[in-house]
Amino acid sequence: DVQKMTYELVAQLEEADYDMDGRPFLVRYNSPFTPGFMRHNEVAVRVVPRTTVN
User: What beta strand segments (E) does 1-54 contain?
Assistant: First the structure.
């Protein structure tokens, strides 16, 4: 489920002190004709280190 994986990715970024640089996007590696159970897709986002202001 793409939405579930997106939330998981955002939570992991929060824990690792990174900020998103843009919106998450779906990376699809297979042809649209590949059966669903054989597909490999990922959720990705550009990241930047979190900066702190003193």
Answer: 18-20, 25-28, 41-44, 47-49
Nearest by Cα to 24 from 42, 40, 39: 42
4-29 pLDDT, tens per residue? Answer: 989 999 999 999 999 999 999 989 88
Q: What is the largest CA-CA distance in the chain?
A: 53
Domain boundaries, the chain: 2-49
Specify the residue for token string 């159970």: 37
Q: DSSP labels for the chain? A: -HHHHHHHHHHHHHHTTEEESS--EEEE-S-TTS-GGG--EEEE--EEE-----
Smallest CA-to-CA distance from 40 within 48, 53, 31 is with 31
